[in-house]
């Protein structure tokens, strides 16, 4: 398995969720890979083949577990978990993405369970006004969030998250499951890149495997200023 050693004294791999033998997923993965080629990154992005599940949220959660198990095998220090519609924001200049990511990782507290590069309807420990006046880029502590399409976890937390996801999946065998909400069970800090670095890219009329329907553009998509998008509509879980 390919890994990369950086000058930052840690190894990071990215893992992207996709479906095997699926025409829609193959096209999405091609577009995803082309989007990431436009920014300079010094880590590999490795496809993880997840599988559809009749209950929403279960398939992607099992994909996350598979990715974290692969990260353990790969002996990386950090894993960036991506969905195949997670694209770098278009306003990120090519030479700035890796530089900004390195800067945020240095700021990331050691007791924080995840570092979000994307997300929506993020609830933080700060109000929107105070976040707006922060010198950016920076990190803001998170209470809970939606959208587990771009997040980093450290090696010491791989097994913890695998165990928790397995435990929660066994409790919600037939119920809609939100893996990102499960992370709040740890009662540990979580942090978000501010502004966001990764967008939830949506093409009007494209098909969502998670929602099993044609998707409309979400009003929060395309916005890196997450603190100003808290009151936009959100799809119900059920």
How are the secondary structure elements laid out?
Blueprint: E1 12-18, H1 23-37, E2 45-49, H2 58-74, E3 78-83, E4 86-88, H3 97-107, E5 115-116, E6 120-124, H4 128-132, E7 138-146, E8 150-154, H5 158-171, H6 179-182, E9 190-194, E10 198-200, E11 207-208, E12 213-214
Parallel strand pairs: 1-2, 1-3, 5-9
Antiparallel strand pairs: 3-8, 4-10, 5-8, 6-7, 7-9, 11-12
Outline of this structure?
This protein is α/β, with parallel strands linked by helices and 238 residues long. It contains six helices and twelve strands. β11 (207-208) and β12 (213-214) form a beta hairpin.
What would you note in describing this structure?
By secondary structure, the chain is an alpha/beta fold. The protein has helices at residues 23-37, 58-74, 97-107, 128-132, 158-171, 179-182, and strands at residues 12-18, 45-49, 78-83, 86-88, 115-116, 120-124, 138-146, 150-154, 190-194, 198-200, 207-208, 213-214. A hairpin with a 4-residue loop joins strand 11 and strand 12. Mean pLDDT is 86; it is low at 1-7.
The strands making up the biggest β-sheet line up spatially as: 2-1-3-8-5-9-7-6
Structural class: alpha/beta
Overall helicity: 25-40%
Q: What would you report as the Rg, rounded to the nearest angstrom? A: 17 Å
- What characteristic shape results from the CA principal axes? globular
Compute the number of strand runs: 12
Largest sheet: 8 strands, mixed
- The residue ranges in which pLDDT falls below 50 over 5 or more consecutive positions are 1-7
**Strand portion:** 15-25%
Order of helices and strands: EHEHEEHEEHEEHHEEEE
By oligomeric state, this entry counts as single chain
SS summary, helix count: 6
N-to-C CA distance? 38 Å
User: What is the residue-averaged pLDDT?
Assistant: 86
